[in-house]
Task: structure prediction
Amino acid sequence: MCYNFTMKNTKKNRSLKTTTSRPTAKDQPAPVKRPRGRPPKIKTDTPAPPPPVDNLKILEALLLRLVSPLKSLPVQTNEAVVYIRPEDIAFVTTSPPPKRGVIIVTVDGREWRRFDSIKDIKDSLAADPRFFLAHKSYLVNVFAIRGLRRDPENKRQEVTFGDQVKPAAAVSSGNLKALRDLIEL
Amino acid sequence: MKFSAGFLSRRIQTGFSIALRTTVTGDLEIVSSAEILAFRVKSGKTFAILPDREVQTLRPLARLQPLLKKHGGWFQIGRGLVVNCNRLVRSQTAPGGGYRLTLENGAVFNLIAAYARPILRFLETQSLTQVTPISHAHAFMMKMGLKDLDKLVTAMSKEELIRNFSPNTGGAVRISDLIVNFLWQTLEYIRAGNESPVDGGNVRSLWYMVAPAIKKLDTLGSTDHYKTLSDQLARMVKAGVCSYREFNFFDDGKWAIGAYNPHVIFMAEKEAHFGMFLKKMQDLAGVTIISTGGQPSGITSEYFCEGYIQRMAALPGHPPTVVIALVDYDPFGWALQKTFMSDLKTFGVKVSAPVVHLTLPENFTADEIIQNSYDLLKDGKTPPGMLKRWMKQTGGIDGQPFGMEAGHLITLRPHWAREVFLREVKPFLVVPAPVPKTFWQEEEQRRQELYLQANKVFKRLLKTPGRSRPSK
Result:
């Protein structure tokens, strides 16, 4: 086994390279290289599979679209407690005065009451990324949004939730960009 | 992201396989555990309760329990009964005790209270009947018997009324529940921004609205349901759920806020005393006056307190409220005065000073007492307990259970009554009596001035050429 030292990456040889022509394969025998370090990467037509952690993230994102990781939210009726799945909530808004508490509007258009503040609801739903405080009085489920429009009367931006949900949720101008990013606009 | 066990089953109904026996011996049917609502053990056999049927399982419940526990959301709610709480949509108090759980497809199960704790832990809540926090008003109304109704009480048929307001155990319709729900629906209607359907009316106007519904049940003649309505409304007002003002009832209660010393409230039990004595004392001392006319009316008390609070808000730094009472010197007079004080408290008027009574034995002569006092024991109208309490508070007349009517104080010697009033009220007056001008005179003078001004303008307009309408 022999080594061709003429091709060694030295200053002298580099200067020679520029002046002399490259030797052809016919002139010199192909050098036999000793395998050192990592084996060379083999280029194939099929792309390399992504690392497994990415798959899990995608799966998690898909699961979150389907179902909330949180427990059902209890709401009060006149004689019972009803349990609402967080993924079924369209938006949460404050009760109009003189009433106190919040109104939870579900994607089927039904309205439910709770007696805590919108901040408390926001905190309890904080672990679910679908909820976004679009306005100080509106906590919206971004996966339930079906439209973004400008209210013809007051010219403010608002989001809609399909035919079954009549009321729309206001979006403050400061939060509009963040909301557009969330719904990938 | 942390996912709770069994969280996916509520949406896509994933679960583990459960083998069910079929009618053909040896054949098995495999279903997902998420499709099953509950497992029930009957005579040593385990049955799976599905939305439309109940089928025996291959394995006993004891063998299934570890799987159910691993999957999460399955809880024992009674002896040999395990329910899939991942599909729970509603919980409420059961009529016979414990709780009633409703699952997604409407299946209802009764939960024995002793088994509730793990379910509460699973749901991360404190109660299966009340959400925390809850408004005081809503909690009170729930206790009063409020129901989830999808129709107005007044529009319900006889069958609907029986279905909604009869106890589950059977029996007659609970009229008080019906009335409470009617009142709540009316209140919700008004609070939604609509005009009160009894605007300018009174409590009886509300009764006329609900009476046809009660008449459908053929129970009108037996009990005084108007009293039930009036009592239930009074309870709601006292609990702060609503106010009479929300219904906008008309009230011609006998009261007037004082112009100079409004913080002194002079109350009388008898309606006749308003004109006979109270008005005159108001003219003299500028105090606030009210005549309750026997048992104080809730509406009058509320409207009076509303007016009083408004007046006092305009006079910051005024001394605290004082109440001077002209009531009969007997247990009923004292009870009426106490009710009035309770009403003041309910409607937001704070009174910390003790009540000053005018009808006391020391304000009568010995002859007057001998001639006009009455024996409360012989009378037989006062319950013994009530009389005993009153005697303990007042000592009666010379330790004997005798009473005196308030009317005797102001009719036997009117001047003396006036002096007694002025003597008692003097320490509390900001503007000493007699006040500069009587309120009634001032009011009359102001009206006269307005009339004169208007008259002058009218005459001037008539004299101005071109202003008068040309005659045809």
User: Anything to note?
Assistant: DSSP finds four helices and ten strands in chain A. The CA atoms of residues 130 and 141 of chain A lie 5 Å apart. Chain A touches chain B through 29 residues (CB under 8 Å). The two ends of chain A are 64 Å apart (CA to CA).
